[in-house]
Write the structure tokens for this entry.
Amino acid sequence: MGFADTNAFIGKLSRFDSHTATSRRAALDRLDVLATWLDTAVLIPGTNIRFGVEALLRLWPVIGDAAASALSLYLLYSAKKLGVPRLLLARMLMNVVIEGTVGAIPIAGDAFDVFFRANRRNIALLRAHFASTGNF
């Protein structure tokens, strides 16, 4: 393979779209599992109330809130890598900011976190976006 052939091959690689519908769906399914663990993994027996790891982290003042928000921001990072528009990322970020801000209030914030479920909301936004654009 000569120099010109190598450059042509590299040019094809740079235009390669790694976000096919199948890979996008698989990535979204993995993010959905993460959101479930963060927001709704545990059912309180005898009720319909669900909570996740994030609600437990938020019980630990300051450090737990920061860790929970960092996990939520990972979903946004992944959405950005999937190529979603900035406006959608801004809506998703607002969900995380609302949950993080209100969640920092002792006791009331913890209850809010159980019912607001920013990660589940963000996954729903991602699924709706890809369904509406036909990329899913």
The chain is about 75% helix and 5% strand.
